[in-house]
Design brief:
It is built from no helices and 48 strands. It is an all-beta fold. The protein folds into two domains: about 375 residues, YVTN repeat-like/Quinoprotein amine dehydrogenase (Methylamine Dehydrogenase, Chain H); about 130 residues, Immunoglobulin-like, CATH 2.60.40.1530. A six-stranded antiparallel sheet has the order 1-2-12-11-10-9, with no helix packed on it. A hairpin with a 2-residue loop joins β5 and β6. The protein is elongated.
């Protein structure tokens, strides 16, 4: 599909390059990104893996919940394909309402937005204070990351750009529907070279060791000299290559509609292995010697990066998975067209968390303990979600039904667990015991949500009691366990009961998590 270039006020057109007069140069004081930032679709390592993530992982991802959500209006039948970049505390993404957005990563508040001439399904790259992103209007835009003002734009002969730019060593690489791969000077937008393939280029480039790797709908994966654009090698896979390659340890990994995942020698293109996976549009992620990819059949595959051997396969969804996985701290994050975000254990494939959103066409990003995802609906519009593991302050008390008891009486202890917030408390556990001088009678659970199970001693027995809430408790709600025992101790005996509670959600104030009470037998 071709789109006419729209005229931009106060601009100069030079050989396909538009320079905004108000913002011709790259910002001189661009803040350097943190190593943990996700600057572009593949990340800087070209592997969709964030090795710096340490906040959320296998042990606590079960507590992943909404931090904020921002609604983005769009046309009917919106598909949200632009995946977010997160740099210096700002989230950048494109939308089918023709705009590029920048939001505050902590609050979701709008920082700026810029309107292009058509839908933006390319994922932005943010480097040296500039946002680079393609548009369906046929232009690659460079925008000031702080203000959203135009720095420059470059036309790809009016052809749609869905390929996400990669920015390496001062050069922007991307493909376009005019069948070309482009390399532009990142500072000026001047074209350095272009390479013509046999069909649309919707794959996004991976750049490593002076080589650009990119697929084409002509069925080939190309390796191009990053400086000159000269072809080093190409491999014909036989079907359109919309999947974007990943590069790790001298190998290039790419999927295709041929239902295979391929590993190729990065220097020669020689095939090391192929693995039957099902049709792949999703781009692979590579982490710790494992290749992760989603399939059109709804599976997530984990393959040994050296041999292609299948380590595990999970089908979390009956719907297709077109989006690409992201890996951080032992967790694989991926969305599905069933509207869910899935967090899988990277070692076993076990599903650790399912978070419902809307239909997915965007890939997740993980930075500083927060998962950023885009989702849209067929009725138009879409949301960006920020999901994090919040903290919940649990507050426990032990309340006896009477402070005056006699041998042979039934005594009930109530253990109310309050969640003082601010986040949901997930899967609370209460640990207590039948106090010395009593025997077990029965136990009850109530409150919000009023669900749970307990492991107890037998009737008239003694010992430990462990109760599980088995759900999520919202802020300012209470979950209560009631234990009834029979007093067996003689008069004068002090009966002491104590308990402790915890949850999967981090709790910064453990002083409230234990409680003790004593009564004297009369």
């Amino acid at each position: 599909m071709n789109f006419k270039n729209s005229f931009v006020a106060r601009s100069i057109q030079i050989a396909g390059l538009t320079l905004g007069l108000a913002a011709i140069s790259i910002p001189a004081c661009a803040q350097s990104p943190s190593p943990a930032d996700w600057t572009q679709f593949h990340r800087d390592n070209m592997q969709r893996w964030n090795p710096y993530e340490a906040t959320v992982g296998v042990g606590n991802v079960k507590g992943l919940q909404l931090k904020w959500k921002n609604s983005i209006s769009g046309p009917m039948f919106t598909f949200i394909e632009s995946s977010p970049a997160v740099v210096n505390g700002v989230v950048y993404f494109g939308s089918d309402d023709n705009r590029v957005y920048a939001l505050d990563a902590s609050t979701g508040a709008l920082v700026w937005r810029y309107t292009t001439g058509y839908i933006v399904r390319s994922s932005p790259a943010v480097v040296n204070g500039v946002v680079y992103v393609g548009s369906g209007d046929g232009n690659l835009y460079a925008l000031n990351a702080s203000t959203g003002t135009l720095v420059w734009k470059h036309s790809s002969n009016g052809s749609t750009i869905e390929s996400s730019p990669a920015v390496v060593n001062g050069i922007v690489y991307f493909g376009a529907d005019d069948n070309n791969v482009y390399a532009l000077n990142a500072s000026t937008g001047a074209q350095l070279w272009s390479f013509t393939t046999g069909d649309f280029v919707q794959s996004s480039a991976a750049v490593a060791n002076g080589v650009v790797y990119i697929g084409s709908n002509d069925g080939n994966l190309y390796a191009l000299n990053a400086t000159t654009g000269a072809k080093l090698w190409s491999v014909n896979i036989g079907v359109p290559v919309e999947s974007s390659p990943a590069v790790a340890n001298g190998l290039v990994y790419v999927g295709s509609d041929s239902v295979n995942m391929y590993a190729l020698n990065a220097s020669t293109g020689a095939q090391l292995w192929s693995a039957a996976t099902g049709s792949i549009i999703s781009s692979p992620a590579v982490a710790n010697g494992v290749v992760f990819v989603g399939t059109e059949g709804g599976e997530v595959e984990a393959l040994n990066a050296s041999t292609g051997a299948r380590l595990w396969s999970r089908a979390p969804s009956t719907n297709g998975i077109d989006v690409s996985p992201a890996v951080a701290n032992g967790v694989v994050y991926i969305g599905s067209s069933d509207g869910n975000v899935y967090a899988l254990n990277a070692s076993t494939g076990d599903i650790l968390r399912i978070y419902p959103t809307a239909s997915f066409s965007s890939s997740p990003t993980i930075v500083n303990g927060v998962v950023y995802v885009r989702a849209g609906t067929s009725q138009g519009g879409g949301n960006i979600y920020a999901l994090g593991v919040g903290s919940a302050d649990l507050f426990l008390r032990v309340q006896p039904s009477s402070t005056t008891v006699h041998q042979g009486d039934l005594l009930t202890y109530a253990f109310p667990v309050w969640n003082l917030g601010p986040a949901n408390a997930d899967f609370e556990v209460l640990n207590t015991q039948v106090p010395a001088g009593t025997t077990f009678n029965y136990i009850r659970i109530s409150g919000t949500p009023g669900l749970g199970t307990c492991t107890t001693p037998p009737y008239k027995g003694t010992g430990q009691i462990v109760c599980h809430e088995n759900g999520s408790m919202a802020p300012n709600t209470t979950w209560t366990v009631r234990l009834t025992v029979k007093v067996t101790a003689p008069a004068g005996t002090v009966i002491t009961e104590n308990a402790a509670t915890m949850a999967d959600t981090p709790d910064p104030n453990l002083a409230n998590n234990t409680a003790t009470v004593s009564v004297t037998v009369q």
